[in-house]
Amino acid sequence: MFAENRSLPIPMPGYFARRSASAKTGLHLLMASITSMFLLFFISYILRSQVSDWQALSEPWQPLGQTNQLWLNSAFLLVASIALECVRRELRKPELGNSREFLWLAGFATSGFLIGQLTFWNYLTSRGYYATSNPANAFFYLLTGLHGLHLMGGMVAWLIANTRLQRERRDPSEKGLCLATLSVELCALYWHFLLLVWVLLFALLSSSPGTYAAIAEFCGFGG
Amino acid sequence: MAYADDAEHEELHDPTSFWSRYIWSQDHKVIAVQYSLIAIGIGLVALVLSAMMRMQIGFPGSIDMDASEYYQAMTMHGMIMVIYLLTALFLGGFGNYLIPLMVGARDMVFPFVNMLSVWFYFVSVIVLVASFFVPGGPTGAGWTLYPPQAITAGTPGSEWGIILMLVSLIIFIVAATMGGLNYVTTVLQARTHGMTLFRMPLTVWGIFVATILALLAFPALFVSGVMMLLDQTIGTSFFMPDMLQFGIKTEHTGGSPILFQHLFWFFGHPEVYIVALPAFGLVSDLISVHARRSIFGYRMMVWAIVWIGGLSFIVWAHHMYVSGMNPYFGFFFAVTTLVIAVPTALKVYNWLLTLWRGNIHLTVPMLFSLAFIVTFLVGGLTGLFLGNVVVDIPLSDTYFVVAHFHMVMGVAPILVVFGAIYHWYPKVTGRMLHDGIGKLHFWITFLGTYLIYFPMHYLGIQGMPRRYYLSEDYQFIPQSAHSLNEFITVVAIVVGISQLLFIYNLIYSAFRGPPSGGNPWRACSLEWLTPDTPPKHGNWGPSLPVVHRWAYDYAVPGAELDYTPQTTPASEVPVHESDEDEVLPAN
After folding, report:
1. CATH of the domain at B296
2. Of B112, B179, B257, B409, which sits 20 to 30 A from B96 (CA to CA)?
3. What is the interface pTM, i.e. ipTM, of the complex?
4. Interface list for B 120-179 with A (CB within 8 A)
């Protein structure tokens, strides 16, 4: 259905540099847009937290009073991010080093993070913390859900990187190596970004109501 | 430009069938036409809706329209015009067609994503149109979709209509983001040899900065849309406060409608410039070409675009003066709003100074450009009124506001759209539009829109409220206002019908128009220098063009022609970069 690709003779390093620069610029712009979205969610969260019906999840007797599960999830995402960085470095080694193993580790760790987040959702609902029960709950589901969706989008890129890496192992070529490297570099950058977003998100969600009030006061819309 | 060397060897996605050439095309030019046709099509729907509203306002009861239908027409008209017509046409239409051609690229850098963008846009339009056919019809909440009213029973379309509107907007944002990544990256990474940022035509600058605004501002609409969707569907309370609905307490508690307003306008005001900045860029090029005069103050124009884009993010709450905000905030937003008039005025002065002593050709594109300047001036000046809190409060929710925003971001950008289509149509089709029909279309549109919107300022000052379905039997609305409304309605119908001239011209000239040749306007910028007209896939044949100068070398002293294309080497005609070496007209 789609047009066939017609590749002209390519001086690879130059072509790769161009494609790589374009892809990275595009990803940076996408991350800027996603940052804008999460920043606006964060501000909305702080503003909404100042209304009297807000029941913070971070009080000691509330679900986020115990954050062991979320710390474990964070560790999964951190491992995924480090593993992708390792893949990036391994690709420079002869025979591609242990790139395949690290890439699978990144995939498993990311899946672990997503499953961990779903587990915590399940824990919340089992204790009766539904999205409609309280705005704090709704924000928790919404923000962690959107973060997870972005990570799942990243998993599509991870699949492409994995496919390209497998192909490069089977049938090595300069072009194949360049494309695999580019995919991995983009994945690594995106995962680092989503790790940073998660760290900020985790900090926000698990902060005390006093912290929200202080931030709200600082922003000029304190209660 | 380091990458331009390799662009000559890049992968091309040559179409091999009708489907890959015209439907699932990855060619930026085809995608631009697809965007434009969809936008014009849905724009015509919005035009019909406005005609229906005008009939109700001018001649109440003359058509079968109840109050709910009136509000639904009003809402859909506003949203379609702002988002689905103007934004899509400027970025998806003109951006797609002109950016690669003007910067000397073979295509957008991510052609597949570009193709996805237009199809997501199409789906968003389909979802929007589907809301006309669901139980309760489309939302009638007004284009700002303010909660709680937007999702409260009693508001038309508060069940299915609003859901489809929000889903459609979310899909549109995905489409705009995919397109936007392409436009900005192409400008940054795919410029040809010698095409520095400060040699780019102002059209590219306008679309480039507007796209950056879109990438940063559309998330605000996304955030507010998602939260309202959840409030409506699963019963969260992000925006919905404690309230009674038909005397019964709803399940919502404590939500903040003002939060929605902040988010909406954090998107909404940059949106004004997402539409205006491309218009500024396009009209700058039209004026320069048709006045045979280098653009005055090129660098100033570029920085004004950037300045306006930056400021547009800190003025949003001037749309909320009557929401009960802290007076200090009102003062802050009034100041930033008035400051934005400075770079805007610079641009108007520079357009006038470009025309000054120019060899003005009153072609159809130039007529539309001149009309834009005066229309934008009127709309901009009334913006100064509304930017001041003390003036805005009595004028808020009156026809003065309707007049202002229709002049400044309705009529003015549409005039540029028309001018730009008359200007670039020969490149797209290889044929000229009919000049006589074009001039008739221009005069009816220009004079007609003035007759429609200028009197609305007086209606507003008289206190005539906007959004009223029926304005009879109110003591504070005099009979003269009703007479004026009748007059406006008659003119609006005439102007609306006259747009068929434009549609006819587009279709007729595509087959019967005189061949245009490659560069009918004798313009300097790259898009007119393609080896084929219309340009073939890949745009430039075997090798990319090499740029030696800016896009505005008109009437260079000593040059054989009154225009010097960007590809002319300095050895043939001296290079006069930007306004620092202002080029005087030959006469």
Report:
1. 1.20.210.10
2. B409
3. 0.93
4. 177
